[in-house]
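look at this:
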Amino acid sequence: MPATSAGRRPRVRAAATPWLFATPAIVFFVLFLVIPIGYAVYLSFRGFRVEGGGAFGRRTQAFVGFENYLTALADPEFVAGLGRVLLYGVIAIPSVLGLALLFALLLDTPRVRARGFSRTAIFLPYAVPGVIASLLWGFLYLPSTSPVSYLARQLDAGPLDFFGFPALYFSLANIALWSGVGFNMIIIFTSLRAIPTSIYEAARIDGASELQIAWRIKIPLVAPALVLTGLFSVIGTLQLYSEPATLRPMTTTISSTWVPLMKIYQEAFVNDNLGGAAAASVVLAVGILVLSLLLLRFFQRRTFGDNA
């Protein structure tokens, strides 16, 4: 019997060791993700009620059920912000992924020169924080400081309004290109480098050109990386905030509720409506989750067939 107990102790220690190492991560996950999400859901069911009537009415917080959710879904500013984000995504996502794939394919060609320098140069803008990049491009968009506007005035080409409609969406998409192409390129390029070179050699022996190899071999084999970067881009697009919020003081085209996250910030910290802001946040988070799952399922079927 003692021998049996002694034999169990090493097995118990071996089973507990992974949990011991994972404990700090689990604690941080619960403190900074699970609890804040739970508190946001709790706040979304609460709101202000007026007790009493006339001039002596008193605002108190109370349970309001799904009233905040219905208000958020029926809010025209929130719905309009979702429409602006979708229009921005139609422009930004294909541009970012297309350029990232192009640069990855070019860097993966056999006789490319300065591959390391080029990879670093393309990735480097990603290291610049989004707010700083938005400020830099914002001053380049302003008519008084933009070199492009200066050249247009010198050539009598007329004023250029980078903040008008629909130029504003392309201006924001350009900031997304600046900061997002390098990150996505690294993911796709890493996936390309994992493909066995024997496949390329066999294709070249069969007479395939580099363009044919890229189109018929490389792109289909890096489809999982394209799906991953696509999901990242969709999630980042729906969470658009820093770029329009940073450019807002430079133009009157961008309102304080131009995108959903700006609307949520306005409700929480300007209108003092934490319940409405929490409900809108939950609606946005659930929408992102559902859309991500649908896109993932769709691309899995297209990439791996019905067995996915």
